[in-house]
Amino acid sequence: MNTVNKKVWTAYWLATAALFAAAVVMIFAWTPTEATMGTVQKVFYLHLPVAINTFLACLITFIASIGYLWQRRQVWDDLAVSSAKVAVLLCSVVLLTGMIWGHSAWGQWWTWSPRLTFSLVLWLLYVAYLVIRPSIESRQRRALVSAVYGVVAFLDVPLVYLSVKLMPDIHPSSIGLAPEMKMTLLFCFLPVTMLAVGLIAARYRLQRAETLSMQQADDPSSNMIAANPAGGFT
Amino acid sequence: MTRVLREIMLVSAKDLRIEARSRQTLGLVAVLGVLIVVVLGLGLGPQQVKSGMAATAVLWVAYLFGGVLCFEKTMAVERHDGALAGLMLAPIDRGVIYAGKLISNLALMLALALIVTPVAVVMFGFDLSAAPLGFVAIMAGGFVGFAAIGTLFAAAVSSTQSQGGLLAVVVFPVSLPLVIVSTQMMMRLFGEGEPLGAVGLTVLIAFDAVYLVVSWLVFELILEP
Amino acid sequence: MSPTTHAIAAYAVTILLLWGYAMTLWLSARRQKTINSQNNPGRSLENNPGVSGGNPGIIRGGSEPS
After folding, report:
1. What is the dihedral of CA A110, A113, A118, A120, to 10 degrees?
2. What is the pLDDT of residues B124-152, one digit of tens each?
3. Rounded to whole angstroms, what are the CA distances from A118 to A161, B143, B207?
4. Which phi and psi angles does A34 have, rounded to 5°?
5. Letter string b/e over residues B33-63, b meaning 16 or more CB atoms within 10 A of that residue's CB
6. Closest by alpha carbon to A72, among A133, A132, A147?
7. SS3 category, A34
8. Within a domain: residue A36?
9. Cα separation, A54 vs A61, whole angstroms
10. Contact call for residues A30 and A184 (beta carbons, < 8 A)
11. Which chain B residue shows the shortest CA-CA distance from A141?
12. What 3-state DSSP class applies to C27?
């Protein structure tokens, strides 16, 4: 069972890497360059799928948080943290690529445009989720506070979206895409989603292992090595 | 219905009576608020201070930090001598405890605003007379949502040992939409002289409703002595 | 900086962060495996006091072998 599992995992990651490489080759070699913005528009093909997957990771945190509030089982908390960590990572990628793109298009690293602000607030919301966890010592309490926060933070996302709509905008609302561009964009969703799901799953497995070894270490009858107290950012 | 209202009033009257006798929180929060205004005034320098819109941002900073201290204090009162256990044993709904705490927090924040706002208005030369009612409406909308979230997380966080700054980290990101909406509305109201739009106010009220309902639903799950 | 430099920088950041995180996870998983194997070497009966036939000597309050 375990070796089969391992083989499936290896295959999954190899496929993800291959598809990712194929996507990058496709973006640079096959897709036509956009007329007004030039090469920098190619950032878009990763930027958008990663942004969508950020929402996916946030959604998983939300569902896992509700699961924890409902059943009070540690597995839900482990899943919630794992996807929150991946959400922060993906959101960082969105922010950074967006900033690089913005610097090329508008000549500024940062403007308080609605979408940039939206990504920044989203990033802050989930960074706060990760930051508060180590400060709470009791495991049940930590899971409970995190679950409440996970629910509230996700419900906050539409509010952030509505609120930034009131701000003045310079972001392109829609870009006209050539058929090849649309193809490339659709294709890019595949490796990025696989990568995001794979990262959440891998982080979750690690989180489970850490939780189990922490539970053993908490057990006073054993003299085991504690792995990693409350977990850092990895 | 009236019974529920009476119970809510009982809970918050108890908090406010404690505060009226000790005057611990309000003194602390008011001085903190004034300090924030002064520090920002010094930091921004005479040019920026006179340029107009700095006052609303400064006020929000003072309200946010002061508010978090209020939330911490009203919940910390319950941590002494097992008071929360007594409160939870009382024959009242958990939602009533939430509403009572919310009202105490709003009362404290109102007192804070009454002290800090004039100071900021004077120091930053902010012309409040352009639309005083609009200012009150926007700030009231912001306060209700902020206090709703703050009351919830104060209950969640304060039963853990280390509290310093933790509540602020939890509450600030969640209340950012309120800050964005109200500062945008303030900018339109005072910067561009537009009258208060119905859209902005509706958004603010809808936000408050979302925060209130979610916090009220979740509060029950997290209250532990 | 030209648009091409920007595009390359953006791709470098994305690949570095995402795949770098995958590598970190892989390494942490290996480290965790090592810790677990040190804690219960071969899941031997010795360290599993709950299992019948385990070494009764290390169980707190365990029954003495007659």
Report:
1. 10
2. 878 777 788 888 999 999 999 999 999 99
3. 6, 22, 16
4. -70, 145
5. bbebbeebbeebeeeebeeeebbbbbbbbbb
6. A147
7. strand
8. yes
9. 11
10. yes
11. B160
12. helix
Q: Which residues contact A38 (CB under 8 A, 6 or more apart)?
A: C3, C4
Residue B171's Cβ-side half-sphere holds a number of Cα atoms within 13 Å equal to: 31
Please name which of B4, B5, B75, B107 lies closest in space to residue B219, comparing C-alpha atoms.
B75
- Which residue shows structure tokens 């900086």? C1
Q: Which of B160, B173, B215 lies nearest to residue A141, judging by beta carbons?
A: B160
A4 in contact with chain B, both atoms CB, cutoff 8 A: no
Q: Mutate one of A97, A188, A216, A225 to test the C interface: name it (highest C CB count within 10 A).
A: A97
The range of the structural domain enclosing residue A69 comes to 15-203
Positive or negative CA dihedral for B24, B25, B31, B32?
positive
What one-character-per-residue DSSP string does A74-85 give?
HHHHHHHHHHHH
Q: What are phi and psi of A38, to 5 degrees?
A: 80, -155
CA distance C3 to chain A (A): 5
Q: Which of A3, A213, A2, A204 is nearest to C36 (CA)?
A: A213
- The single residue listed with the structure tokens 């967006």 is A98
Q: What's the CATH number where A21 sits?
A: 1.20.120
Radius of gyration of chain C (CA): 25
Residue linked to tokens 């009858």: A221
Residue A230 lies in a domain: no
Give which of A54, A29, A48 is closest to A39, Cα–Cα.
A29
User: Which residues make beta-bridge pairs with A38?
Assistant: A34
Q: What angle do CA C3, C7, C8 make, to 5 degrees?
A: 120
Structural domain contains residue A37: yes
Interchain CB contact of C63 with A (< 8 Å): no
B198-222 and B166-186 helices cross at what angle (nearest 10)?
170
Q: How confident is the model at residue A104 (pLDDT cuts 50, 70, 90)?
A: confident
Chunked into runs of 10 residues, chain C (66 residues) has average pLDDT values of 82 89 88 76 48 44 43
Answer yes or no: is A19 within a domain. yes
What are the structural domain ranges in chain B?
A: 2-222
Q: Is the dihedral of CA A181, A182, A185, A191 positive or negative?
A: negative
Tokens of B165: 């700054």
Three-class SS state of C54? coil
Predicted ipTM > 0.90: no
What is the number of domains present in chain A?
A: 1
